[in-house]
Design goal:
Distance between the termini: 85 Å
Shape: elongated
Strand content: 15-25%
Structural class: alpha+beta
Oligomer: single chain
Number of strands: 14
Low-confidence stretches: 1-18, 142-147, 409-422, 428-443
């Protein structure tokens, strides 16, 4: 046990080049809190425990079989400048490391809350924690805690990079065609689609540049690119929702008058995700994420490192969008199939092809492909990742084909085609005609 008394605010620095297997850096903020509760003196106590921390019911080991307790005789928590600990070992690390803490109360229960894990090299782990308590690095066997994807990271990254590049190219072409050639002829459906294109373009751009920004190790730049990518993703989900809502109002409800319809949905689509990313950045949710592969390479990415934030914000947000869009998808597909059967009793092969194109287009427009990744577990996780990566990486390309298809009909029969001179949109049309015209052939 080591007890240190400090009369001034200082930082404790450690040299990783020494043979000491563990070192710690305490920020000035922690010393200030200790001084406030200890009559102007800062107390630092470091306790080292051997042969502690192993739970036979859990599938993990404790690195170096050591647990460290740090106390400053004060309530040190929610630090803005984290405590940094470096754990070293003489052998190469095998398995997945996770920085964990225990509050010292009751049964030995480890948690990763408030701590971040970074692999410095094959022998050293860096733990950044916002509080003081008992700490250890828990080593899980290969394949635990999501590391099952490690052998596939390289191939998935390659497919994603190629797909995102192709998507950005075709999204750029579509945006060029719209703003320079077809903007004057655009209707409401096209305007919604273009906003979705812009959100997808920003998402692909921020994703492709993320690793390069992360490698600069500039904290502010990493937070910005993570924020941009997260905002673009949530905005894309929002435009999936708006696309489904628009088709619901036009094809299902109808006879609805909405003042400044396009303006309202545009403001909603781009501003609704903003408070979410502001809340995440305010709690320090965007950090550098280390992705390991079985080849020994490590990839850095700026993203959300807290699983709780990811599940609540990303999966929770998409789950709401998914429920709504899936419901609209089922209703519209049902009506399209019914309308095509009534209209074209003969020529079943042609009718089937048209219906298949309708279903696939709606599937992309409503963003239902994201469900493949978000809701995949167990033995289907890896196959679903490949399906998701291929479909979503090339989503921009597929949507460009869709955009080109609907604009072959210069009259714009795809959508309601509102009067451009009026700020009020009235959606009035026969249900059968509306459904038939969604993907009607221009010829």
């Amino acid at each position: 046990m080591i007890i240190l008394l400090f009369s001034q605010v200082v930082d404790c620095h450690s040299d990783l080049k020494t043979d000491i297997p563990w070192s710690v850096k305490i920020p000035s903020e922690a010393f200030k809190k200790s001084r406030l509760e200890n009559n102007g003196r800062a107390l630092l106590g470091v306790l080292r425990f051997k042969n502690m921390g192993k739970d036979e019911t859990k599938n993990y080991t404790v690195l170096n079989n050591e647990v460290y307790g740090i106390t400053m005789r004060a309530n040190i928590s929610n630090l803005t400048d984290n405590i940094e600990m470096f754990f070293s070992t003489q052998k190469d690390l095998v398995g997945e490391a996770s920085c964990s803490s225990w509050d010292g109360k009751g049964n030995l229960t480890w948690t990763t809350s408030g701590c971040e894990t970074e692999k410095i090299n094959n022998n050293t782990i860096k733990c950044s924690c916002s509080h003081l308590t008992f700490f250890a690095v828990l080593m899980s066997p290969q394949g635990e805690n999501g590391n099952i994807t490690a052998p596939y990271v390289d191939s998935l990254s390659f497919i994603t990079s190629i797909g995102c590049g192709i998507s950005m190219f075709f999204l750029s072409v579509a945006l060029f065609m719209h703003f320079l050639l077809r903007k004057a002829k655009s209707n409401q459906a096209t305007k919604i689609l273009i906003n979705m294109f812009v959100a997808l373009f920003l998402l692909n751009l921020s994703f492709l540049s993320n690793e390069s920004v992360a490698n600069t190790e500039v904290k502010a730049a990493c937070v910005f690119i993570a924020l941009l990518m997260h905002y673009s993703m949530l905005t894309t989900f929002t435009w999936f929702f708006i696309q489904a809502l628009h088709m619901y109002l036009w094809l299902i409800r109808q006879n609805i008058t909405i003042t400044n319809y396009v303006r309202k949905i545009t403001v909603f689509g781009w501003t609704f995700p903003a408070p979410i990313v502001v809340a995440v950045v305010s709690v320090g949710g965007y950090k550098t994420l280390i992705i390991n592969t079985t080849s020994g390479k490590t990839t850095q990415m700026c993203w959300i490192t807290d699983p709780l934030i990811h599940y609540i914000v990303n999966i929770g947000y998409y789950a709401l969008v998914f429920v709504f869009t899936a419901g609209i998808f089922i209703m519209i597909v049902t009506k399209i199939v019914q309308a095509q059967r009534v209209r074209v009793p003969d020529g079943k092969r042609k009718t089937f092809r048209k219906q298949l194109m309708m279903v696939l287009s709606l599937f992309l427009l409503f963003g239902l492909t994201w469900a493949v990744a978000f809701f995949s577990y167990g033995v289907m996780r890896i196959p679903s990742y490949y399906i998701f990566t291929v479909l979503n990486s090339f989503q921009g390309f597929f949507l460009f084909l869709y955009y080109y298809h609907i604009h072959k009909d210069i009259e714009g029969r795809f959508s309601d085609d509102p009067e451009r001179s009026s700020s009020t949109t009235t959606i009035v049309q026969s249900r059968n005609n509306a459904v038939e015209n969604v993907y009607d052939d221009p010829n």
